[in-house]
Structures are given as structure tokens and as C-alpha cells.
Amino acid sequence: MRPAGPGGPPPAPKPPRDTKTLALKGAGLVAIAVVSCLLWWLIRHEPETTPVADTPSKNGQFQYTLIEGPQVTSDCASKSYGDTKAFFTETPCTRLSRALYTTETGGKKALVSVVLVTMPGEVTATQLKALTDKDGTGNVSDLVRDGTFKEQGVPKISGQDAAYDSHVTGPDVAIVLAGFYDKKTDKPVLERIATDALRLSGDLRR
Q1: In whole angstroms, what separates CA 98 from the centre of its chain?
Q2: Is the N or C terminus of the chain more exposed, i.e. has fewer CB atoms within 10 Å?
Q3: What pTM was estimated for this model as a whole?
């Protein structure tokens, strides 16, 4: 068909532009751009993690410094007191290793005694743990109590203010006592130190 001449009907008008839709699309693109910029800024300016007060060691929560020992013997009876001494007189151990450590946390310094007792078997090891876990039954003497370590100002860690923990692994019994220097107190933290220090008994097996 030939196109209409000058005298033909006028061309159909173009449909009006949907300005509302265009405005919404434009606003959406702007919002996406703003969110993207905000996310990028947050990634670039992520705050650093605040370090905790306790510096963790490689395999535990606290770091320790060895200050005495290990002292090794097979005579547990002479290195213990109370009912624990009587127990060793009837049931001798096969090996005893003792050491002293220090650790610091929150501005407080703690003395930590770590003892590893090797018994003839798991049954006697469990019996020893059950005995030392009770109050008033004595214990293996730490290196301060028996006079081996004589540094001035060290705390006594065999009293009620000390923290205690123990663990049995086969014939081995690990016993830990811990106390703060300068008569400082924080029993919950001290108990955490004692529990954490049980792992140091692995060094006393060598």
C-alpha cells in the first residue's frame, strides 16, 4: 500500500512516556548505588577486634614461665603430707615430677605448682585423685612448701586461698595449685588458671 499523501489522514500520535515508572526505576538505581557504597565503606573501615586481657598460649588460655623444676623422684611419701603421705606409704608411686610456674593476667601475677604423680595403675591413680580432691587430706608438697624454692615474696599455695584442680590419665595424676602474689584475690580467675595449667603436666612426663 502506498503511504498517504499530503491530503491523507495525519500520523498516529506517539504514546505518552510513563514518567512515573522511569522515576521509580531511577530511584531504585540510586538506592542500589548508595547501598553498594555503604557496604564498601563498612568493609574498608571494619573496626579492629579489641584484644582480650588474657594472652592465650598456643594450646591454652594463659602463658606460663617455668621458674623451678622439674624435680623428679620416686619417693612420693617423703614429698607429701597428711593422709596423702599415709596413702603413699601404703601404695608407693613409681614416679613424681614437680615444677613451679608463674603467669600474669589482668595486672595480677600468680604462682602455679604443677605435679605429676605416676601410680602403678589406673585404679590407684583414681584413688589418689579422690583423696587429694577432699579438703583436709593433705597433698603432694609443692616446691615452695618443702623449701626447694626460696624466693622472697612468693605466695603460699597450699592454703584455702589457693585454687586447686586435678586430672587422671591412665596411671598419671596431675595436681595443680595456684595463688596470687601480693595477697591479691580473684578466685574465679585463679580457678581458671589452675584448670588451664593441668595441660602443663604433659611437659613433666618427659
Answers
A1: 23
A2: N
A3: 0.71
